Amino acid sequence: MQETSVPTPPPVERIRHAQRRRTLTVAARERLTPHMIRLTLKGLELHGFASLGADDHLKLIVPDADGGEVQRDITPRRFDAEAGDLVIDILDHGAGPAADWARSVQPGDPARIGGPRGSAVIGGGVVHWLLIGDETALPAIGRRIEELPAGIHATSLVAVPGPEDEQLFRTRGTHRPVWIHRPLSQAARSERFLAALDGLKLPARSFVWIAAEAAIAREIRARFLLEGHDPAWMKTSGYWTARDRDAAEAP
Ligand SMILES: Cc1cc2nc3c(=O)[nH]c(=O)nc-3n(C[C@H](O)[C@H](O)[C@H](O)COP(=O)(O)OP(=O)(O)OC[C@H]3O[C@@H](n4cnc5c(N)ncnc54)[C@H](O)[C@@H]3O)c2cc1C
């Protein structure tokens, strides 16, 4: 990894949205890829919904095993105010309230969401995005690529179980996808990401966006910092935390 240092960081505009819970209806459900479930949500309560940042998140409110409810962070993959459609993609990673709900929900069922509470829009100056993540980051990465203006480039480095879980994005910019294949059982291992970064050369004004399992995201970030990447040109998020499933399920 080498790059030319860039003096002026891109501005980040933070926009607050009115806090509100909404009850919507699942209008459609499809297996986008073997491990990704796409839900289209509709409803009058979408009035006033706003999501301005590609990596915004809303709270999906789903039942838990004890009859209560839990909230999980999910990216608004696409919002079409005119059509009144909100699309979300949920990874079927196995057992968890959000994954279980997405597997079982049917068209006509209610879907409850809160937020987004705000959007962080990374402004001009970025000419190349390096978007690194796992399946849970794909909705934000896909949205970012689809929203690229002409003349802006993106490279994505995304881990999925296999070629059938890859996704294709249309964009006015240019996009170079790099896919890592590993089973979901290895989703908390960083080796393949770090190996894929070896020898990677970043053009000036590259923004590095990282979202994956929390420890992996931290490791990748540390690697960029070690290589001298300016932290003002980087955003890192832990999108989930690996827990021992047996321990998590124990009483
Ligand atoms: C800002 C933000 C945006 C996000 N956007 C999306 C999105 O658009 N779509 C999406 O699917 N997820 C997204 N996530 C990640 C999602 O919130 C987590 O994966 C969440 O833990 C899933 O909840 P659950 O109820 O299915 O499982 P949990 O009850 O949280 O976890 C149950 C078990 O599954 C394991 N687990 C959880 N996630 C994964 C995984 N990805 N791979 C392997 N094992 C896992 C846990 O370690 C635990 O052992 C986002 C997270 C953040 C912070």
UniProtKB/TrEMBL annotation:
Domain FAD-binding FR-type: from-to ranges: 19-123
InterPro entries for the chain: FAD-bd_FR_type, FNR_nucleotide-bd, Riboflavin_synthase-like_b-brl, SIP_FAD-bd, SIP_fam, SIP_rossman_dom
Cited Pfam families: FAD_binding_9, SIP
Top-level lineage group: Bacteria
Residues spanning the membrane: none
Stored SUPFAM superfamilies: Riboflavin synthase domain-like (SSF63380)
GO molecular function term, any single one: oxidoreductase activity
Family according to the record: Belongs to the SIP oxidoreductase family.
PANTHER family to which the protein is assigned, alphabetical: FERRIC REDUCTASE, NADPH-DEPENDENT (PTHR30157), NADPH-DEPENDENT FERRIC-CHELATE REDUCTASE (PTHR30157:SF0)
Name of the protein described by the UniProt record: FAD-binding protein
Organism from which the protein derives: Marinibacterium profundimaris
